[in-house]
Amino acid sequence: MSSKDWLEKDFYAVLGVPKSASSEEIKKAYRKLARELHPDHNPGNTSSEDRFKAVSEAYSVLSDERKRKEYDEMRALFGSGQFRRNARGGFDPSDLFGGFQGAGAGAGDRRFGGAGFSDLFSSIFSGGGGAGPTRTRGPARGRDVEAEVVLDFGDAVRGVTLPLSLRSPGVCDTCHGNGAKPGTEPRACPVCLGSGLVTRNQGSFSFSEPCRECQGVGSIVDEKCPECQGTGGVTKSRTINVRFPAGVADGQRIRLAGRGEPGERGGPSGDLYVLVKVRRDDLFGRTGDDLTLTVPITVPEAVLGTDLRVPTMDGAVTLRVPPGTPSGRTLRARGKGVVRRDGKVGDLLVTVEIEVPKDLTDKARDAMETLAAEIAPASREQLDARVRRYG
User: Fold this and answer.
1) 157: helix, coil or strand?
2) Which residues make up the binding site for Zn(2+) 1 (predicted)?
């Protein structure tokens, strides 16, 4: 998340809390909204899904004391009028830097709308504006990429490797990412001497800002690559194999480092985040690391007890139903659930429900009437006793 995002988004408004809200109030507001907007409760509703992502993003900042402090300081600086929007919708930093003039000013404005703006503020709030050595910025890191994959329930429990097709920016095969026409090479920027940053003194502060001559890259391309127009990247289709570990849960994000968009002019690639959606299963459910299963039994089986054979994800097991088992009782098959991250395995929780027959043969009805005659007096006596007691 860039500093530009922090300036443009009011995270307090997203969560519906005042700026003075306590950590507990922020957590309470997030949980309420997360329950209401979760994709499982709003299938196919893209608006709710976008709001859910916005709420999660806001909470990730406001729930962290350090991030919240930096966010408040940055918003206060912006709200005080130090910055103003330019005609392209970005932010004009000239108010803070006294209308700095130099070569390539237009290119500099573009950098302040992106990663360069983030670097500027990170140097302010991280204490990097002192007289120490200037950090070399170099080629810009590529953006992170998000993708979504729907897994079958069984694949999510056992783990699976699947091919994932993406259409996104990739390294230009013509210039191999440096942005220069084949046969030429980028040259070091004469203004920043290849560092990508220039330092200015502003009162008692020393600020580092992206070099406007090279747009913070540190190098200049005189003859641009005809394929990528000097960016070092082109849009292409690619397929990668993604390993989803056993026990991956619905809504979990898998991070693949360095598999996102390539960096500008040979910079490091961003990361790929794969959001996992798990299809519902017709038979099994899931609660944490435990699998759940509901199995019907007959009245005689509940009364007399029985050995019940039930399916699991890797075969079948036999569970003992003790005599006198009530409907709704849960039996446990240990080690037949989801594999945990530490290697341990959850359980299979089997809930038995007594199935009452709707149609009876004459023989079955006679048997039930005989049974009722045997057990009804005791049951009736208990009921009458309760009536007399609470009378």
Assistant:
1) helix
2) 172, 175, 225, 228
- Alpha-carbon distance of 347 to 290, in angstroms, equals 5
198 assigned to a ligand binding site: no
**Is 192 labelled a binding residue?**
yes
**Rounded distance between C-alpha atoms, residue 159 and residue 244, angstroms:** 5
Whether residue 211 is annotated as binding a ligand: the answer is yes
Where residue 80 falls among pLDDT bands split at 50, 70, 90? very low
Reported CATH class of domain 285-356: mainly beta
Strand-pair partners of 240: 164
Do 83-278 and 285-356 have matching folds? yes
Task: Judge contact between 351 and 308, C-beta under 8 A.
Answer: no
The answer to whether 5 is a known ligand-binding residue is no
**Is the pLDDT assigned to residue 100 strictly greater than 50?**
no
So what's the pLDDT on residue 121? Answer: 47
Residue 10 φ/ψ region, left for φ over 0, alpha for ψ in the -120 to 50 degree band, beta for the rest: beta
State the CATH class of domain 83-278: mainly beta
239: confidence class by pLDDT, cuts 50, 70, 90: confident
